[in-house]
Each structure stands twice: as C-alpha cells, then as structure tokens.
Amino acid sequence: MKQLLPTSTAGSLPKPSWLAEPEKLWSPWKLEDQELVDGKKDALRISLQEQCNAGIDIVGDGEQTRQHFVTTFIEHLDGVDFEKRETVKIRDRYEASVPTVVGPVSRPRSVFVEDARFLREQTDQPIKWALPGPMTMVDTLYDAHYQSREKLASEFAKLLNDEARELEAVGVDIIQFDEPAFNVFFEEVSEWGVKCLERAIEGLQCETAVHICYGYGIKANTDWKKSLGEEWRQYEEVFPQLQRSNIDIISLECHNSHVPIELIELIRGKKVMVGAIDVASDKVETAEEVAATLREALKYVDADKLYPCTNCGMAPLSRDVARGKLKALRAGAEIVRNELMA
Ligand SMILES: [Zn+2]
Fold this sequence. Notes:
The protein is about 40% helix and about 15% strand.
C-alpha cells in the first residue's frame, strides 16, 4: 500500500432489507433462485459503493453473498451433513446445534471465487477477501469422522489453501482468515492452530491476514466479555506465536475494548489492522475518537504498518449506523495521516 494508514473493514457489512432481514445474524434470504443470485450481486455492488463513498481504501464484498462467515463456506464442502445435527459448545461459550462431519471433507468446487472475480471487475482499489480459519471451522461442527480437532483442522487448511490460491488468481490483494477461536483455545493454538493457519496460506504471493476478535455484539459474546474481568489479556497468549508466523497482517480489536493496547508490541514487525470502530455499539464514533485510538496504537506499530479497521464485522448493525462508522473511520485516519505528514 502506498497510501499511509489505509482503511478497511473486518469484513461483513449490513445487507439491504430486500435481500435479508436486517440487524440479524444468520438472517434468511428473502429471494430465491435466479432472483437471489442477482440480488446478491446487486447487494455486493451497493456495499462496495458505500465503502467507496465513505473513502475506505481497501474494499471488500461486505460478505453480501454469504449468510454466515463460517457456515457458508462449510455448506459448499462434501463430508459435512447439515441434516445431521448435534449440540456442541461453541468457543467454549454457548451451546448451538451444529452440522456433523460424517466423512472425509473435500471442496468439490470453488466457493467464493466467482464472487471475488465479480468484485475485482467492479473496482481498481485493493480488495480483501475473508475466509474462516481452520480452527474456527472445526469449532463450529460436530466431528463424527476424524474425531480429532487437529486432524480436521489440517484437512480444512488444505481446502482453504486451494480456495485461497484461486482467490489470489482472480486478483484478490489480501486474503484474511477469521480466527476468533484463537482467543479461546490457547493450548490448541500453540499445538496446531498456527501450523494449520500457515498451511492455509502456503504458496500464496498475495498478502495474508488473520483476524482475531472478541466477536460480534451478540448477547453470548457480550456476556462472555463481562466474565473476562477488567483487562483482557487473551492476545498475550497468541501474539508471540503469530509474530513468528508467516502471516503478514494481524487484525485485532481495540476501541472500547478492555484489551491493554500495549499488547500490540508483541507483534512488532507485523502489519496491524487496528480496530478503531466498536461494532457492539450503535453509537457512531467521532473522527477524534478514531484518531485517539490510532495515535495510541502508533506507540506500538510503525506508521507504515498501521491499517485502521473496524473491531469486527458490522453485519448486525443498521445500515445507517454502519455508514456513519465507515465515514468516522476514514475521517479519523485522515486526521492522523495529516499529523504524520506535517
Ligand atoms: Zn471479528
């Protein structure tokens, strides 16, 4: 990136109400068949337009073509039975009825490559594409086949790598893996989590990112956050390992978070997508608030490696609020950019 402090989002943005019920995760589609295919494309165009209007530098699809950041990818795989459901505890936090791994997993065809190609055709700006991380995928399923989280994760990593290579080939500039599970299963992160992540990015020439956060502003997450105490030091466990990994960029949450910001020092040398927008609140940040978060982060990240971003996806927010937050992000980055160039 030539632009100093290039802005981006963690991934998802709200969908138009004609496509899916707003302000809801896992919202069912309102269209069917060809209308749904066309509707998703139109929503992607609008989402891109809104990012451009707000002045976002690294743009994405706003995840308009997927219902959920993990499930939609898994739906396209063989070996997972969505009819056969078991109740498991996701992120060690909340119970959910999840699909079952019933045989060897494989990816019979590309999942997002056509959508990414479509996005690429719409813009000359750098584009980022998000995929679920292997550990987070494993944590969203009941495994009756491999009966090993590590084995299943390493199989997923290979499939993700195939998908990522195809995304790179259609011109995606940054491929991001969403790994909120890294904030929970520290032992597994050191035993096989980072290894599987590195398997997923093997051979890629484009930039790679990992997004680790405390989740969307849904109740299960806000309740969990209340249990974490005054200081959230989860990042301290995984950052040293990520610092030594081949991942180029680390995306994390900062604003309104109880994460001690100095923990970013642990990933010194990496590019850092600093969450300067709270996605768990409808209150739109002021440009000055965004700038204040970025200035703090600059104590631990070199200016040419700082990428202002949102804490997490904004799918559950209203479109107005999300629009306001995108503009605030840009305006806050602008303030600090001017200070750095003065
Ligand atoms: Zn997130």
